[in-house]
Design a protein that fits this description.
By secondary structure, this protein is mostly helical. The protein has helices spanning 2-21, 23-43, 51-66, 72-89, 95-119, 123-147, 162-183, 190-217, 233-259.
């Protein structure tokens, strides 16, 4: 537990400043996470890693992150076509893995697109989303360790419990709602803040379980080992990726309703 806590603290100290500052620091953080994630997406399948394919995934992620939103759909179409070309003319990726790689890359790029949208509202809104996510992660861990008795979904994640899930939801919801009310009370309608705070921790746990299902499918414990006690970068940002996508959708819905 001590190693896990220390590593988590270091990760927070490295990640939080770019999330608050935005700009170049955030861009560098996104590049670093995208590069490591591109490697881990392919490495989890086992066998020899194609560095050319890793480079392709990394470049594709950056292109879809950097292109204007009007060109995002064409970029996705081009990415999908190239994946099939790689499958057809090489042995680098099977048809089953093609689907997996496409879905995982879309999660990654939709999340970083969410970062761009969220930063239109300021870095404090990013902290709000992160609190809902990581508050849930921390709460679920401690409630699960000290009170967990009833298994949540044992076939996917044997160690997760209902007590941990409920405790994580509670801590994530309270932490994010309190932050929003104290720091950004006028940024959104109170009903939106309440709804987001109550649902973001649930989405965080869905993200965690979804990535656990992937690891279970490929018979691995972690996506990587770069963070002692925590696994790989995807093991640390799985919940956050889903939360970024989800809150991005909430913002789009709010903006559409304002226009209407």
């Amino acid at each position: 537990m001590k190693q896990r806590f220390v590593t988590g603290l270091i990760i927070a100290l490295v990640a939080i400043p770019p999330l608050v500052l935005g700009g170049i620091p955030l861009l560098l953080l996104v590049f670093a996470v995208s590069g490591l994630a591109s490697y881990e997406i392919l490495a989890v399948r086992g066998g020899k890693i194609s560095w050319g394919l890793v480079a392709f995934l990394f470049a594709s992620t950056l292109v879809m992150y950097l292109v204007p939103i009007d060109f995002y759909i064409p970029a996705i179409i081009a990415f999908l076509i190239v994946l099939f070309v790689i499958h057809i003319f090489t042995k680098e990726i099977s048809i089953e893995d093609l689907s997996y790689v496409f879905v995982m890359t879309m999660i990654l790029t939709l999340a970083v697109k969410g970062i761009i949208h969220i930063y239109n509202y300021g870095g404090l809104v990013m902290i709000y989303v992160a609190l809902a996510c990581f508050g849930c992660d921390i709460g679920a861990y401690f409630f699960g360790v000290f009170f967990g008795k009833h298994k949540l979904i044992e076939r996917i994640s044997p160690k997760k419990t209902w007590e941990g899930a409920i405790g994580g939801w509670f801590t994530g919801a309270v932490a994010s709602y309190a932050f929003a009310m104290l720091v950004i009370p006028n940024m959104f309608d109170p009903g939106v803040i309440l709804f987001s705070s109550l649902t973001l921790p649930i989405i965080a746990q869905i993200g965690d379980l979804s990535f656990s299902a992937v690891k279970r499918q490929y018979h691995v414990k972690d996506f990587g080992s770069i963070f002692p006690g925590h696994g790989g970068v995807l093991d640390r940002v799985d919940s956050l990726l889903f939360c970024l996508m989800y809150f991005h959708a909430i913002l789009l819905f709010i903006e559409v309703m304002v226009i209407i």
